[in-house]
Write a structure and sequence with these properties.
By secondary structure, the protein is an alpha+beta fold. Helices cover 29% and strands 28% of the residues. The chain is built from 13 helices and 20 strands. The protein has helices at 10-13, 15-25, 38-47, 51-56, 58-70, 105-118, 122-130, 178-181, 223-226, 233-250, 329-334, 348-356, 367-370, and strands at 2-4, 33-36, 76-82, 98-102, 142-148, 154-159, 168-174, 188-192, 198-201, 207-212, 215-220, 254-261, 264-272, 290-293, 296-303, 318-321, 337-340, 360-362, 376-380, 385-388. The radius of gyration is 21 Å and the shape is globular. The chain starts with a strand and ends with a strand. 49% of the residues are buried.
Length: 390
């Protein structure tokens, strides 16, 4: 029903856990954990047994509690690991559940059930339907990953290049990485060349997410830290080295989540890059924002403040918003382009936009105020330029 993370494979435990197991076996810095197998999910689905009932079995509960004690009496991350996510053609970025700061077997059991349920949530179903490159496969199953939670001082995402001589792109911000992948903060960007030279663009990072006991809190970043780099150049170079090592091990360019805690680097996830972002570099003409997804499109600007505005969006509109969450994925199939006020090229919104072939420009300050609702706007997702008709 479960295995040590170091023994996990994609076949036994889904894509995310299987890849991290491979990295652990290679000696890379991955937090230790446990992987609930896809067979556990299938058995529960077949017998209508939920996760709390599964762990109510004395023998299973005792074994699982022993494994949890081996991880230490500390908060955990409980993360989905479906068989059809983190593949070469579909990331499933943000479509399934993740829970941070979970503690104790009863809370873990509830989180496991929620991860199982998220496999067939409306959000995940819409993502599969919208994917233009759905793979022929058996019915997906859900593994679940239970790991030590890294209380990150800084965290982020990096893309390794297709060309080994090209630069590795790294995005970084303060605190836990949910602010970057969720697009709620515009991160620092580092471009590390193969010879170790680098350029960087330091963003104005207004907020950060941290653990406070068994809950996550969003705090304002102190004024002195907002324009201070979230990581130093030596850390960026070390990350790029790890990225190249991981890409070589896995045999393809990778989208990698990482964290730094007490000056120690951790790798939290690695998956194939399903669609490469447009090239960007400090000093290049980025127009009004950061280019996030190739292509040019024109349509009426549709200012969307949240789910209450979803009904106003029509096919062919240009979505203009502060940031998106996975719940917004169905809108990306309708719109002709996307503009966000915060976020970077490695956020979930940008990744899904690239998979769907929708031009996107990110990190455009005050876009929802400066652009006029209903007035045509042209978006160049390759250069970051935005032009609205008068």
């Amino acid at each position: 029903m479960f295995v040590a993370l170091i023994d996990a494979t994609p076949e036994s435990s889904g894509g995310k856990a299987g890849t991290l197991g491979r990295l652990l076996r290679a000696g890379l810095p991955v937090p230790d954990g446990i992987a609930l197998t896809t067979d556990a999910y299938r058995a529960a689905a077949a017998s209508s047994v939920d996760a709390p009932s599964l762990f109510a079995s004395t023998d299973t509960r005792d074994q699982f509690e022993r494994r949890l004690r081996e991880l230490g009496d500390r908060p955990l991350a409980v993360r989905s690991s479906a068989t059809d996510e983190d593949t070469a053609t579909r990331s499933a970025a943000g479509q399934h559940e993740t829970f941070l700061a979970v503690q104790g077997i009863d809370e873990v059991a509830v989180a496991v059930r929620a991860c199982w349920d998220s496999l067939h949530s409306p959000i995940a179903a819409a993502y599969r339907e919208d994917s233009p490159r759905v793979e022929a496969a058996e019915t997906p199953a859900m593994g679940v990953l239970v790991q030590r939670l890294v209380d990150a001082d800084a965290s982020g995402v990096m893309f390794t290049p297709e060309d080994p001589t090209a630069a590795t792109t790294i995005e970084a911000a303060w605190g836990l990485g949910s602010s970057i992948v969720g697009g709620t903060v515009t991160p620092d960007a580092f471009y590390v060349e193969s010879d170790g030279s680098l350029d960087r663009t330091i963003a104005d990072k207004h907020t950060r997410v941290d653990r406070d006991g068994q809950r996550l809190v969003t705090r304002d970043v102190p004024t002195d830290d907002r324009l201070r780099p979230a990581i130093g150049d030596p850390t960026a170079r070390r990350l790029a080295e790890l990225g190249r090592e991981i890409a070589e091990l896995l045999g393809a360019p990778q989208d990698i989540e990482w964290a730094v805690a007490d000056d120690r680097l951790w790798i939290l996830q690695a998956r194939p890059i399903t669609a490469s972002p447009p090239p960007s570099h400090p000093g290049s003409p980025l127009g009004s924002g950061t280019p996030g997804s190739h292509g040019t499109a024109t349509g009426p600007a549709r200012i969307v403040g949240g789910p209450d505005d979803f009904a106003r969006v029509r096919h062919g509109d240009v979505l203009v918003c502060s940031f998106t969450t996975p719940a917004w994925t169905p809108l990306l199939r309708m719109v002709t382009a996307v503009i966000t006020e915060t976020g970077g090229v490695l956020s979930h919104a940008a990744i899904v936009a690239r998979e769907l072939g929708v031009p996107a420009v990110l990190g455009v300050p005050e876009a929802t105020r400066r652009l006029k609702d209903g007035v045509p706007v042209t978006v160049d997702g390759t250069t970051g330029a935005i032009v609205q008709d008068r």
